[in-house]
Amino acid sequence: MCGIVGYVGNQECADLLVDGLRRLEYRGYDSAGLATLVRSDGEKRPIEVLRAVGKLGNLVAALRERPLKGTTGIGHTRWATHGRPTEVNAHPHVAGPIALVHNGIIENHLALKRELSAEGVKFSSDTDTEMVAHLIHREAKAGHELFVAVKRALAQVHGAYAVAVIDQRQPDRIVVAKNASPLVIGFGDGEMFAASDIPAVLPYTNRVLLLEDGEVGLLTADGIQVESLDGKKVEREPRTITWSAAQAEKGGFKHFMLKEIHEQPRAIEDTLRGRVDLANGDIIASEIGLDEATVAKVQRVYFIACGTSSHATLYGRQLVESLAGIPSQCELASEFVGRDPVIGPTDLVVAVSQSGETLDTLAALKVAKEKGAQLLAIANVIHSAIPRAAGAAFYTHAGPEIGVASTKCFTTQLAACLLLAVYLGRRNGKLSKEKAQELLQHTVELPHHMRATLALDDLVRDLARPLASSHSALFLGRGVSFPIAVEGALKLKEISYIHAEGYAAGEMKHGPIALIDANMPVIAVMPDDRSYEKIASNVQEARARDGVVIAIATRGNSEIGAIANKVIYVPKVDPLLSPFITSIPLQLLSYYVADFKGTDVDQPRNLAKTVTVE
Ligand code: AGP
């Protein structure tokens, strides 16, 4: 996830672009850049480009040293997906007279790179984005003006993109295009704006047009002309935004956490993008971060992580065992370093961390490295300490998560664990092509079912209200729902400060059942799967002791309504994939309980987003 901006009008635009980027910095902050063009001072001038590594402040400092002139310009704040956060990898990327900023992932960038290399193109970055700049340049060299060149180039691209492109040959315009990544056009008076999100344009105009997938726009100071990629005219009126700038920064959501919960279908799409080979029922090997020789040695998979990430690994372990038939263990990183684990070269140690900087996980990884284990990191932040120490990385591509309580990073970790397990199962032959095809088909359909689950927002909100006065809550699950129950309890604790326990439902009778009375809400995660009958009995046991049960069950379940006090019915999916769905009502429940209590949802007390102490 990155932020892009564009301006064409009569004002000097460098500071204006920086102002837009500041409002988009939540989308990425590892490097930033600008490119500007002088529109009409009589002489033709080259595109001016300025890029800086690190937060936007570094670009502002560089701009003070070397101001950029021009009334047409584009800007970018980066959250790296391909290539380290360095100045050469920062956007804009330039090819001949073309400069381009991009948000998204180009799936066929390796094939495009091979094709362009064969034509003698030299690359100056490690990014997928640079291919698009060169494709447009190739079309420009063939004599096409910018609007046509961009349409022709994008027809060769697969993947997610929002792009803004300028061309030294036509300094009075910007061409923008969108597929899967967001792009907003702002209508000023004699000036036009483009941005990844509404807050970046809101100080200048509240008249906006949201570009749709497959649309390309030609922006000049006087307005916009929109077409589909294949050249059909699109007529749509701008709409007026009534939110305040502060509201808009969170996309209209009250908190970042709620926004991030709602971003999950998109985040999962980004985790899966370019990695699933449906035709062969496989995972694209170059995407997983492990070579075949390493995988052939693996006799056991050891997951290490902390907090929410450790809950994702509980799911990962089950998948590795059931899909790849490889023995698997999970361990809290802080405990792993505190003893003398028996591991060696036939173990694959997978460190899972959204931040990639958690010190406990890093320390555990170093122990595993010393013992000669094979290493892999599953991380969200590219080139962070844990992937660097592991030497092999699978990035979740969830985009920056601002809320301290992890939501979209968790579900994308589940997806990464799933792809890893399928990959291992296909390598060792435990998972047939047909079974993998079926599972992967269900996996790519998940974002659709997640969107349907998010539509339960209002219902969950109503159920949350009475919970806000509880002092404690018990979350139960079995099988793949056990990690979800534990994670549900952690979410409630973290942001509402209500004590909560996540328990394997079968363990309830071994102790926690003593806690159950009319004041103890019990949240049972019980989708239709092979554990359903057993957890239904556990729910009966809780009800017999006056426990107040909220069940998360599969739509179409006709008996649960008579057992539980309240039911949240969720869409039916492959039983192995239910965690992607059942996580959502639990996240919403915690969110609304906390919001009713009035706690600081995005920055709960005593917690930090990145924990760099042991
Ligand atoms: C999640 O809501 C928490 N903020 C916390 O448990 C977190 O998952 C843990 O600190 C591990 O962080 P990591 O994924 O960045 O390694």
What is the CATH homologous superfamily assignment of the largest domain? Aminohydrolase, N-terminal nucleophile (Ntn) domain
Ligand kinds = 2-deoxy-2-amino glucitol-6-phosphate
Average pLDDT level: 93
β-strand percent reads 15-25%
Radius of gyration from CA coordinates = 25 Å
CATH architecture of the largest domain: 4-Layer Sandwich
Question: Would you state the CATH class of the largest domain?
Answer: Alpha Beta
**CATH fold node name of the largest domain:** Glutamine Phosphoribosylpyrophosphate, subunit 1, domain 1
Strand order of the largest sheet: 3-2-4-1-10-9-11-15
How many runs of DSSP E, i.e. beta strands? 27
Q: How is the main sheet built?
A: 8 strands, antiparallel
Structural class: alpha/beta
What is the overall shape?
globular
Please describe what this structure looks like:
With 614 residues, this protein is an alpha/beta fold. It folds into three domains: 3-240, Aminohydrolase, N-terminal nucleophile (Ntn) domain (Glutamine Phosphoribosylpyrophosphate, subunit 1, domain 1), CATH 3.60.20.10; 256-444, Glucose-6-phosphate isomerase like protein, domain 1 (Rossmann fold), CATH 3.40.50.10490; 457-597, 3-Layer(aba) Sandwich (Rossmann fold). Helix content is 37%, strand content 23%. The strands form five sheets. Strands 3-2-4-1-10-9-11-15 form an eight-stranded antiparallel beta sheet, with helices on one face. It has a seven-stranded antiparallel beta sheet with strand order 5-6-7-8-12-13-14. Strands 19-18-20-21-22 form a five-stranded parallel beta sheet, sandwiched between helices. The longest helix has 21 residues, at 408-428. The two termini are 30 Å apart. The model has no long low-confidence stretch (mean pLDDT 93). 2-deoxy-2-amino glucitol-6-phosphate (AGP) is lined by residues 306-309, 353-355, 358, 361, 404-406, 494, 607, 611.
